[in-house]
């Protein structure tokens, strides 16, 4: 069986060790000859680099390993690029969240105003990595899950239309693990789902078992009562209580349209005031990630490096990373697996913009993906999606034209921002904070 070579771009991410564990656990499905880490920040990558080397050598010493900040070394002779970069790192995420909060607005790091700021930072970083791939390994595929995924995907569609890049997100998969438990399936893979929307902005419209029995009405009835929690759930079943609150909040979201099951991210766009009321403006999600996840992962990697073995490690396989192996396997072995991807609409949603990047089920094989048809969508979903997609397109316009006005329009249009006065204040603060990253807007 052919063996593959992988580079993880954004090697210094706290998700890197979990992704490596997932890859090592799936060598029978996706055999590997080489794993490389690439980051443009050596110091940060060094937090995980040595521990990753030990994990790999202890599992399969035949796999070559290198951690580098040299794009040529990283991108030469690779089959897959797993890209999860965060331009500006968590320090900038913190500002994406806190600046809007100053004006009583939820920041929200992907689709809210925080996401707009993050998008303008991310576009050049993602394009740069695509260019490295095309220069050094033109036949490779990039599996890109760098956020904010919708804006990054729109930039790929516009500036790199022929590139071998597939944009993907694990968020619906995370919710499907719970949905499977609610409906009594052993695994989410027993469910055949229909879903449509934008990234972090979509709805499940059908969930069938292998015999074709429909379960969506059962799920709607459950979510109207309990949200996306099990009936007897409590906060102790969640890694932190905010995830429990998020799962419960689905009850309020679905009450607005009980014909389909919403992504829990709608809490930010439809109930922004509730989110603001429950957020400490001086301690947001970014601070929480630094104090919990980053401390835990970097601390454990330092311990592995010190003792020289990962035999008794507390690092766990990233369950969210399974979609990466599924996608790479589908491309490598033409499995025709059905997966949710972020792709150009091109008529799949028949009453929605052709050139919008939508998140819909696709069939994946060796030549890439083939989107499935969705058909017409109702006014409520269409209205929300049109507002959001145009807001995201305006961010890419602002990047392309270095335009203050386009960015102001993007923020004014954003569902989380109440009016143009507030949009302007947020934008002016964002410009100050993002001087090292954004193009100069005129
Ligand atoms: P992180 O800050 O821990 O790590 C990101 C790394 O990217 C950093 O080490 C940084 O130095 C590096 N980086 C920044 N710009 C780069 C560039 N131009 N080239 C190479 N490396 C660069 O971030 P994180 O919390 O691990 O998240 C990483 C990314 O993955 C984010 O965009 C996050 O939103 C995304 N993410 C996506 C999903 C999904 O399914 N869509 C799931 C989890 C995380």
TrEMBL record:
GO terms for biological process: carbohydrate metabolic process. Its cofactor is NAD(+). The keyword Nuclease does not apply. Gene3D superfamilies: Lactate dehydrogenase/glycoside hydrolase, family 4, C-terminal (3.90.110.10), NAD(P)-binding Rossmann-like Domain (3.40.50.720). The keyword Ligase does not apply. Substrate binds at residues 93, 147, 285. GO terms for molecular function: hydrolase activity, hydrolyzing O-glycosyl compounds; metal ion binding; oxidoreductase activity, acting on the CH-OH group of donors, NAD or NADP as acceptor. The active site is at residues 170, 265. Binds 1 NAD(+) per subunit. This is 6-phospho-alpha-glucosidase.
